[in-house]
Amino acid sequence: LVDYPGFNLRLAQRLRDGGYQGRLIYYISPQVWAWKKGRVKVMARLLDLMICIFPFEKELYENSGLPTVFAGHPLVDRVAEERGQIARESDLVAFFPGSRANEVRRLLPTLLEAAQLLRQRVPGLRVALSAVSERRAEEMRELVRAAGVAEAVEWIEVGTAGELMQRASVGAVASGTATLEAACFGLPHALVYRVARPTYWVGKLVVRIRFLGILNILAGRQVVTELVQADFTPERVAEVLERLLRDEAARHEAQEAMQRTVAQLGAGGAYPNAAAAVLATLDAADPAVDLGKSSASMRK
Questions:
Q1: Which residues are paired to 157 by β-bridges?
Q2: Which is nearest to 203 in space by CA: 229, 233, 174, 179?
Q3: What does the domain layout of the chain look like in residue ranges?
């Protein structure tokens, strides 16, 4: 079973109810540390192994009696593949307003206003946007035209965000996996997000975490500034990014903190590690003991 608990946990329950006694293995844990922690006991009853991608999840599941392996985060391997000898451009700011259309509509107008403020305060500053597809890029172009700030955006990078994350000096990144990716690439950035007010307040009632960004959750402190809801304004975005642009020491401090934090995600080989844990469980071995040996065998 991979990710998506809404379907997979129901499937696991149906299988057990139907008399299935074979191994059930779950890869990529539901975010029970954020909400619905009661599911941990359910999974401990249904599953034979949990394979997680964040280190702090291991203890959470093991405390319930569920055998658990931390395999590392797949993003570490992807970043290693995309990393190149790319120099950062001191006059370049990049905005990553999300992959979904509603995210772009909610976030980009504020980011464009912030871009105008930054260009007024930092002469010669260039701004680039990142779009996951040509369709998203066209939606961004429409928002840029509607805001009347075409001169503020130099270009829109379509496709992988990795190159732009390596080129830009600083950035603003929509909450999600992209913030972790930015940290892996060492991009000093601010996390930004906004949802409808009812959605936000309902979320506040059910989600019990101090930070929104996974990087800050991993660190247990604020490594990157989170600008969410009322804090997400053009003035605040411009303020945070201007400080990072002008203060070299602040940029270096942010990069070092990000590097220390993402090191917790493992040294790579997440998929071979996960495959080794699956094989060990199918062989009725202890996955936590045999992981290193089996993973080395998988790589061969």
A1: 130
A2: 229
A3: 5-72+269-287, 80-264
CA 36 → CA 28, 32, 33, 64, distances in Å? Answer: 16, 5, 8, 15
The answer to whether the beta carbons of residues 126 and 91 sit under 8 Å apart is yes
Beta bridge partners of 189: 171
Model confidence pTM above 0.85: yes
State the DSSP string of 71-114: ---HHHHHHHHH------EEEEEEEE--SSHHHHHHHHHHHHHH
| Amino acid in the structure at residue 43 | M
In CATH, the number for domain 80-264 is 3.40.50.2000
Work out the angle at residue 262's Cα, subtended by the Cα atoms of residues 82 and 171, and round it to the nearest 5 degrees. 65
* pLDDT tens-digit readout, 135-152: 999 999 999 999 998 888
- Rounded CA-CA distance 57/73 in Å is 12
